[in-house]
Amino acid sequence: MSAIIAEAHCDGPCGVYDPASARVAGEAVQSMTKKMLTLAQNHSDNSGSATYLNTMSRYASIKEEEAQKCKDELLVLWTDFFKPQHLESIPDLHDTFWKAAKLCSACKVEVSAEHAQELMDAIEGIHNMFWAVKGKEVPWIRAS
């Protein structure tokens, strides 16, 4: 029996890679951040109540989980999908992903509308890089 030789661009079939999962997680981060800021603003005089603390802790938990999911999804794209030859057409690829991953970390530990928006902007940039490499024009569409 002779060996079958197979080659692939990625670690898995290209169909499994898509920045949409990072976008969905990023949107959840941004949504929870907005909810936390609104809750704090609307309950400044009642921030010690059990209801407030329960709701705030749920929002924080979801925000942190989704920020980690976003980071995981971005790191898979960075390390598994993109290859050295992509640096020719996307010279800021590594910097873009590194900054996006750092924003995921910042969004986990902070409640910053600015950083949540910066994360969404970074994901949009990665979305555009990804689809350009695949030679497709896929519009950036947000669920929220």
List the helices and strands and how they pair.
Layout: H1 20-42, H2 50-81, H3 86-89, H4 93-109, H5 113-133
Task: Report on the architecture of this protein.
This protein has 5 helices and no strands. It is 67% helix and 0% strand. It has one domain: Four Helix Bundle (Hemerythrin (Met), subunit A) (Up-down Bundle). α1 runs antiparallel to α2 (50-81), α2 runs antiparallel to α4 and α4 packs antiparallel against α5. The protein is an all-alpha fold and 144 residues long.
Write out key terms for the chains shown.
Four Helix Bundle (Hemerythrin (Met), subunit A); single chain; 5 helices; mainly alpha; 144 residues
In short:
Helix content is 67%, strand content 0%.
> Helix/strand/pairing class, anyone?
mainly alpha
Strand content: under 5%
Second-tier CATH architecture? Up-down Bundle
What global shape is seen? elongated
Query: What does the oligomeric state look like here?
Result: single chain
Q: Name the helix and strand elements from N-terminus to C-terminus, one letter apiece.
A: HHHHH
Query: Considering DSSP H and I runs of 4 or more, what fraction of the residues is helical?
Result: 55-70%
CATH superfamily: Nickel-containing superoxide dismutase
Q: Could you describe the largest sheet, including whether it forms a barrel?
A: none
